[in-house]
């Protein structure tokens, strides 16, 4: 039976957004305005599922989405955990039925202690028929076991006590050393360990703090689940999820009983809701911006300059003795200035849009210059990689050393995603229409005024 991925809106969802990264984080793009059946006006071609399944082109791929969560929202652990869970569901479903039966689906009622009421009866209260029936049931239950009175004691005949623990086979130093090492299995699907490793100790401590039983190690993927707990669930984890104590305790109690994907049901619902309804819309708004913050500020300045130039032109021709028709020339300044300002207000540069280009993000600029530095955060796509800290990455210091002029004219790259270009075309068309209407209104105000005849 396939465990399907579903999501629901939880009663309380907290955002794990962090502090800003340079000036890129402080710029906010407006909401998407294209027609779509998806929430927030996002087109179906840029839906969350389409991005996760790899059906989009740069700059809207899963890798760009991960970089956005890593460097902008500081919540990459949500997508990392979600991608691991999707892969885990597929791998668990491919297990043989014998192994699946070791980890049955999780039922929340399993965490509640079962109280069994036993009616105490004595031999005095029992009738002879009841005593005989009870004796038969007991003898039938222990028949063939070591508690059977009729069974032969192996201790007397074979000199072996079944309750004794057999001695361990002596091993060499090399074998004992290898047994203490941990690593991936031969098929690469799960982990194995000979002795308790750091993540198994952390998961054991987490189970103890949640007042849950220590789990059975015979269950499939138990070692991998221990690493997931140590990485994402415990407060000391390298990629600790933003979960409440109650959510963590419920998850740990579930994982102490089974490794079935249904144990993650509530946590995955919360994570997926956050990704779909918060991070994904923010990512689409961010990708609409085709210029970095210095370029957008520069474009806004040009827009304001165009509006001021049109206004000065209209005032000068109004105060002069020139004909009223000359005042219509101010519409050029109004139109260019207003269109540029509206587009820049949504994070777009009209010059870059004319070529369907975008600026490279700060963390992308140095990928070709020094690939070894950029490879440092490639493990962000790995489910069990290092922490998501990036403060020591070399590109941060290099980008800070760039002057403003160089940032304004940073390297550009062509936008490959057609759906994103269509959204930008819509925003540009809206900016042009608004600029045409407002410039016409401004000219209509100045044309009827009488001549000033001052010069």
From TrEMBL:
Residues 12-21 have a biased composition (Low complexity). Keywords: Membrane, Transmembrane, Transmembrane helix. The keyword Metal-binding does not apply. The keyword Membrane applies. Gene3D superfamilies: Regulator of G-protein Signalling 4, domain 2. The chain crosses the membrane at residues 297-319, 331-352, 427-449. This is RGS domain-containing protein. It comes from the Eukaryota. Residues 1-28, 154-197 are annotated as: Disordered.
